[in-house]
Design brief:
By secondary structure, this protein is α+β, with helices and mostly antiparallel strands. The chain contains five helices and seven strands; from the N terminus they run E-E-E-E-H-H-H-E-H-E-H-E. Helix 3 crosses helix 4. Bound molecules: zinc ion. The site of zinc ion has 5 residues, from strand 1 and helix 1.
């Protein structure tokens, strides 16, 4: 079992769509970024990559690469899912929090969870998305930006496959006795 955490922040600005969890949110301000700046999906991807020891989204999808300009972060999430599959990891669950003063996000949660479940090929009950405010404090409270945090647990298909119960030790950990 492996745990990962992700954290991301994007600045709010005029003239951009607000996209969270792949859902276009009705709001006069949007998030600034190279991609669609979906701060929720970015935090989730960083948690998944972190748990798999595969670095972060900046490593896989650099913002200097024109291929990712304006791209839907759901497409990047599909690629992260592909990477996890190649490395033999299953997602146990994801828990995420969006930190935003406005707007109210509850009406959009169901659709966000649906999008994430579909991209990652997991059930909706493996994903939880919450939203909170910081009571008007800090950059989120001043509506200068939106932050998101995520944690996830992965299980590796190769976990526990090394000589379990062998008193001579385990080849997977350099012969350490169990
Ligand atoms: Zn981001």
């Amino acid at each position: 079992m492996r745990i990962g955490t992700g954290y991301d922040v994007h600045r709010l600005t005029e003239g951009r769509d607000l996209i969270l969890g792949g859902v276009k949110i009705d709001h006069p301000l949007g998030l600034l970024g190279h991609s669609d700046a979906d701060v929720l999906l970015h935090a989730i991807m960083d948690a998944l990559l972190g748990a798999a020891a595969l670095g972060d989204i900046g490593k896989h999808f650099p913002d200097t690469d024109g291929a990712y300009a304006g791209i839907s972060s759901l497409k990047l999430l599909l690629q992260v899912n592909q990477l996890l599959e190649e490395e033999g990891y299953y997602i146990e669950n994801i828990d995420a929090t969006i930190i935003a003063q406005k707007p109210k996000l509850r009406p959009y949660m169901e659709e966000m969870i649906h999008n994430i479940a579909e991209a990652l090929e997991i059930s909706k009950n493996q994903i939880n998305v919450k939203a909170t405010t910081e009571e008007g404090l800090g950059f989120s409270g001043r509506e200068e930006g939106i932050a998101a945090q995520a944690v996830c647990i992965l299980t590796g298909v190769y976990e526990g496959s090394f000589a379990v119960g062998d008193s001579k030790g385990c080849p997977g950990c350099g012969g350490r006795e169990r």
